[in-house]
Write a structure and sequence with these properties.
The protein is 34% helix and 24% strand. It is an alpha/beta fold. The protein has a single domain, classed as Ribokinase (UDP-N-acetylmuramoyl-L-alanine:D-glutamate ligase, 3-Layer(aba) Sandwich). The strands form two sheets. Strands 1, 4, 5, 8, 9, 10, 11, 12, 13 and 14 form a ten-stranded mixed sheet that branches. A four-stranded mixed sheet has the order 3-2-6-7. Helix 1 crosses helix 9, helix 3 runs parallel beside helix 5 and helix 10 crosses helix 11.
């Protein structure tokens, strides 16, 4: 897989997706909390954020925000993360234009995490083809990697067309295109559910080089079978010949507070699997899949081998589960120490 040279490009990665404000009651329940801590989040945005903040890559986010106090708060989070905000479109912040927010309460033991999304009819969900100058982003400025996924395309009837437009232009100009099969029932339950989401994914996967998630595959770590993963991945690459990498996390949930984690990818018929992390004490699991994606992408952008990339993704996903918010707050040194087998002893 040939990745464009970084000195020929303004950005290492550009993501297309929604920037959300996450309201976290910390150790309280949503329905009993009186104080909430605010974080930034959003599946596709998280990948750009981690690559900028953790891995020190040059990234940008393409999104739309309502020009009001909440929109400017979201923009400030983007600035703090080191993500280029120059490709954000702004809409007048009137009563008919809004920004997406969501509430997440952390699970504990046998109480699962709970969420409450308030993202209907947000500014980015109204984005249409022709509004973004993709030629400028991918050709004139230069972009090495483009990322989007199933959360963005589930926002409205127009967002799949925007993703398609971007993916085609990215490929045309030599950028690697990755797509995450992320499924959110809250986005699809009134539009045909998982079957409808899969239909949209199938329309877009012909324009992807890398896919996160494997269709028709049991991603529970305890059920992992290399041959079954190979069959599921090769079924996808057979249906979508342009796919060069199929990657997935593997997880076993013992309780909200304790998981096992690993990761796997297939490329050119060869399977690469990370080490198994057993009995992880989970602080906040939300965003760990995006952390895996950013770690794997970093490995490939940095011209590391596939084993490094999948190990980096898995280690970053683990560290993301040990910190509050959608993102990890880890450093590359911490990730690589974990990859080498370092534990949780105090560093003095």
């Amino acid at each position: 897989m040939k990745i464009k040279l970084k000195d020929k490009c303004r950005w290492d990665l550009v993501s297309l997706g929604e920037v959300l404000l996450r309201f976290d009651p910390e150790h309280e329940r949503i329905h009993t909390a009186r104080l909430f801590r605010v974080y930034d989040g959003g599946a596709e945005y998280n990948v750009a954020r981690s690559l900028a903040k953790v891995f020190r890559r040059r990234t940008a986010i393409v999104t739309v925000l309502a020009d009001n106090a909440l929109g400017r708060l979201a923009e400030d989070f983007v600035f703090q993360a080191g993500v280029d905000a120059s490709e954000i479109l702004w809409r007048d912040g009137d009563a008919n234009t809004r920004n997406g927010i969501y509430f997440i309460e952390r699970g504990f033991g046998f109480r699962a995490p709970a969420s409450c999304f308030d993202r209907a009819d947000t500014a980015v969900s109204e984005l249409k083809t022709g509004e973004i100058n993709w030629h400028e982003i991918f050709k004139q400025n230069g972009t090495r990697w483009f990322h989007t996924g199933g959360v963005f395309v589930g926002l409205s009837e127009t967002t799949p067309d925007v993703a398609r437009e971007a993916m085609i232009e990215a490929r045309k100009n030599g950028a690697i295109v990755s797509y995450d099969l992320n499924y959110r029932d809250s986005l699809w339950k009134n539009k045909g559910g998982r079957e409808a989401a899969n239909a949209v994914n199938r329309e877009l996967l012909p324009f992807a080089d890398v896919v996160f998630g494997a269709m028709d595959f049991d991603a529970r770590l305890s059920q992992f079978d290399a041959e079954k993963f190979r069959q599921a991945a090769e079924k996808m690459t057979g249906e979508f010949p342009g796919l060069k990498i199929v990657a997935s996390t593997l997880r076993e949930v013992h309780s909200a507070s304790r998981h096992d984690l690993s990761a796997v990818c297939l490329t050119k018929g060869e399977i690469f699997k990370s080490k198994n992390y057993k009995n992880i004490e989970v602080f906040d699991r939300v965003g760990s899949g995006d952390a895996f994606a950013s770690g794997l992408i970093y490995g490939l952008l940095a011209e590391k081998d596939f084993q490094y990339a999948v190990e980096c993704g898995a280690a970053h996903a683990l560290l993301a589960m040990t910190a509050p918010g959608d993102n990890s707050a880890a450093t590359l040194a911490e990730i690589e120490n974990l990859m080498r087998g370092a534990g949780g002893n105090v560093k003095r």
